[in-house]
């Protein structure tokens, strides 16, 4: 009986150590990936913001401003996804907080549609957005 209990304890200890190592590797991976993505993404967002705000002078062609808006929106969306990866990590360590705020769902839908349009046009797919002109206000965590 004692030998069986001792063997079970050893197996449980080995499983525990393996799981702790797996968790440490996962956290190291998340930290590495988010760092590698954040660094260039922050530069992209910064340059897009310079163009968007016409910091270096006005732009004569409104198409540039539209492109800058798309770059900025896509970059901030990607940054939000990276933050979601970090949130996943925080959720596993029970340190995640959810922030419920009131926001306009129309803006998020518009942003999503604008990000999809170039790829849809390339594929020959037409997308028609039909929404009410009334603001769709939602109370939730807009990052989720």
Explain how this protein is built.
The chain is mainly alpha-helical and 144 residues long. The chain contains 3 helices and 2 strands; from the N terminus they run H-H-E-H-E. It is elongated.
The arrangement of helices and strands along the chain is HHEHE
Average pLDDT for all residues? 80
Helix content: 55-70%
The description of the largest β-sheet is:
2 strands, antiparallel
- State the shape: elongated
Instruction: Count the beta strands.
Output: 2
Radius of gyration: 23 Å
User: Unreliable runs, pLDDT <50, ≥5 residues?
Assistant: none
Strand content: 5-15%
Question: What is the end-to-end distance?
Answer: 51 Å
Number of helices: 3
Structural class: mainly alpha
- Give the strand line-up of the largest sheet: 1-2
Concise overview:
This protein is mainly alpha-helical.
How are the elements arranged and paired?
Elements: H1 2-52, H2 62-92, E1 101-104, H3 105-122, E2 137-140
Antiparallel strand pairs: 1-2
Task: List key phrases describing it.
histidine kinase, 144 residues, 2 strands, 3 helices, two-stranded antiparallel sheet, transferase, elongated, mainly alpha, HisK_dim/P_sf
